[in-house]
Amino acid sequence: MNRESLAAGERLVSAAYVRQGCEARRSHEHLIRLLLEKGKCPEDGWEESTLELFLHELAVMDSNNFLGNCGVGEREGRVASALVARRHYRFIHGIGRSGDISAVQPKAAGSSLLNKITNSLVLDIIKLAGVPTVTNCFVVPMATGMSLTLCFLTLRHKRPKAKYIIWPRIDQKSCFKSMITAGFEPVVIENVLEGDELRTDLKAVEAKVRELGPDSILCVHSTTACFAPRVPDRLEELAVICANYGIPHIVNNAYGLQASKCMHLIQQGARVGRIDAFVQSLDKNFMVPVGGAIIAGFNDSFIQEISKMYPGRASASPSLDVLITLLSLGSNGYKKLLKERKEIFLCLSSQLKKLSESYNERLLHTPHNPLSLAMTLKTLGEHQDRAVTLLGSMLFTRQVSGARVVPLGSVQTVSGHTFRGFMSHTNNYPCAYLNAAAAIGMKTQDVDLFIKRLDKCLKTVRKEQNKESNASGVDNYDKTEDVGIEDMALKLDHVLLDTYQNSS
To answer: Which positions in this protein are listed as binding tRNA (predicted)?
Structure first.
């Protein structure tokens, strides 16, 4: 309420009470004013009452919420369902204009402010997370793969002769498809095995650059966050190669924003060489629904070019989600989550190492990977490939999500390219293994429950492998005697396993 409204209220309620209420409101407004003035994430998270006041104040600035508005165009913020309107806090116009996702909409000042503030807060968080020299970023309502595609399409106009993208191999379909979708030919650089780790083959990268010629190469497409035993690419060395040959460098930093090691690699790569843009997921790093990413970089004009490449307006939902999340947490709250994630990683590493040794397995030594761990699966019996896949289905049916089992020799064709040893990031990794990651938001009880269920599944798989070895071809799963819950679950595991193998 403005001053005149408050004065009118004093004729109905004691002036002292009105002034007290006015002061309380000013405390909310003070936080909002500081946010708009500084454009940085507040140190301490806001209460929901402040957040809702702020969002309401922004929403009423959009033309679809004007009292007496008369819209006669095809896009006037009309919504058939009141529930849908409330779900979006009545931000209906989206963000950007047809020529630029970061542009201001004349009839949606509130949504435009929301977009600008969100991008400013996210930039502040990227600096806080370990890349202080980043100059610009924006939230795009697409997941990581399509956001990478947008970066490649922007580079196309700068390098019209280019047809190849140099790509150190990582077995993740969306980043491979992002290059195919943009119309380029990925040149896969196989990783080299150093100890247990799979690392970037720098000599092969430079040799391929010389063979193809820099002008024919759109960019180097590197990766930070990944599943062990692969580790983040050697970003500093790749950045130097890119700088020396005048080749752009795009980094897939999918869930690396939460890992200080990954962010340090990006910062150092930009310092010693060339990194044009780095892309990270919203859902993996900020615990919001899937559907958004952040494109960031060190050259303000190039990041603006990428935003102008996006065709049409865009959904404001990812921006709204991350804005609410960051204002709720505050920078201190987010830093606390980053600290807790590091502690959880150490906890998971310790417990997984202890469990692996109890089964004569071992935790792979991957010190350069700050997010993911891998445990060998060498001792599951003579039918090892089937046992490894069975273990994965058992974990899934016991509600363990996120863990991956990687058998030997898996072959997968993605967009016409055949990958041998798929999921292991190399043609012939020495052993099958199991992956687990310590991501932001994970709790100690998640680790404890995972270890408990994994232990039980390993015992059951070994027991079943021994049965098969002793049965000499007799089917142990056609018995007619009564079975317990665990046996029923095991039968389901075998059904899922057969379904998976037939579909492959």
So the answer is: 271, 398, 463
120 within domain boundaries: yes
Same domain, residue pair 424 and 404: yes
In a domain, 502, yes or no: no
The answer to whether 25 is a known ligand-binding residue is no
Shared-domain flag, residues 297 and 382: no
- Joined together, the tokens standing for residue 231 give 């580790």
Give CA–CA dist 44/41, Å, rounded.
9
CA distance 370 to 217: 30
- Residue 398 counted as an annotated binding residue: yes
210 assigned to a ligand binding site: no
In whole angstroms, what is the distance from residue 219 CA to residue 154 CA? Answer: 11
Residue 27 marked as a ligand binder: no
Burial of 204 (0-12, 13-18, 19+ CB in 10 A): middle
Task: Give the separation between CA 375 and CA 380, rounded to whole angstroms.
Answer: 13
CATH number at residue 422: 3.90.1150.10
Residue 504 lies in a domain: no
Q: Which of 289, 304, 328 is the last residue before a domain boundary?
A: 328
Strand pairing report for 197-199 and 293-297: unpaired
Nearest to 147 by CA among 264, 315, 317, 278: 278
Give yes or no for a contact between 350 and 448, defined as CB atoms under 8 angstroms apart: no
Residue-wise pLDDT tens digits, 123-180: 999 999 999 999 999 999 999 999 999 999 999 999 999 999 999 999 999 999 999 9
Element (H, E) at 503: helix 485-503
Tell me the pLDDT tens digit for each residue of 179-228. Answer: 999 999 999 999 999 999 999 999 999 999 999 999 999 999 999 999 99
The residue assigned the tokens 């919203």 is: 282
75 pLDDT band (50/70/90 cuts)?
confident
- Mean pLDDT of all residues in 435-453: 97
- The whole-number pLDDT of residue 486 equals 56
222 in a labelled binding site: no
Structure tokens at 362: 């071992």
86 known member of a binding site: no
Domain that holds residue 8: 3-88
Q: Is 0.85 topped by the overall pTM? A: yes
Domains contained in the chain, number: 3
Last residue within a domain, chosen from 328, 348, 366: 328
